[in-house]
Amino acid sequence: SHAKKQPDGHVKRPRNAFINFRCKLVSIHSCRDFSFDRGNWLIVGRVWNKFRKEDKAYFEEEARIEKEIHHQLHPDYRYAP
């Protein structure tokens, strides 16, 4: 399925820790011969789930900062799916 087109001025949600991890992984491997098909995304999810709290801390801090900045830029933002 395709995501529906968002209206002009739509504010995206801040990214969570897993999405930050996934984005970092894509940027690292985009210059290599690595395809991000469904099977590989499942592996990425499993790797994330096996991370210890200390392993996730960097990405959780990134997400916390992004959320804080997002709140400063859009104080009236409310997630509405």
Automatic annotation (TrEMBL):
Organism, scientific name: Tulasnella calospora MUT 4182
PANTHER family: FI18025P1
GO molecular function, one term: DNA-binding transcription factor activity, RNA polymerase II-specific
Entry keywords, A to Z: DNA-binding, Nucleus
Transmembrane segments: none
PROSITE patterns in the cross-refs: HMG_BOX_2 (PS50118)
GO cellular component: nucleus
Domain HMG box span(s) in chain numbering: 11-78
Species classification: Eukaryota, Fungi, Dikarya, Basidiomycota, Agaricomycotina
Protein name per UniProt: HMG box domain-containing protein
Keyword Secreted: no
InterPro entries, per the entry: HMG_box_dom (IPR009071), HMG_box_dom_sf (IPR036910), SOX/SOX-like_TF (IPR051356)
Regions annotated as coiled coil: none
Residue ranges flagged as DNA-binding region: 11-78
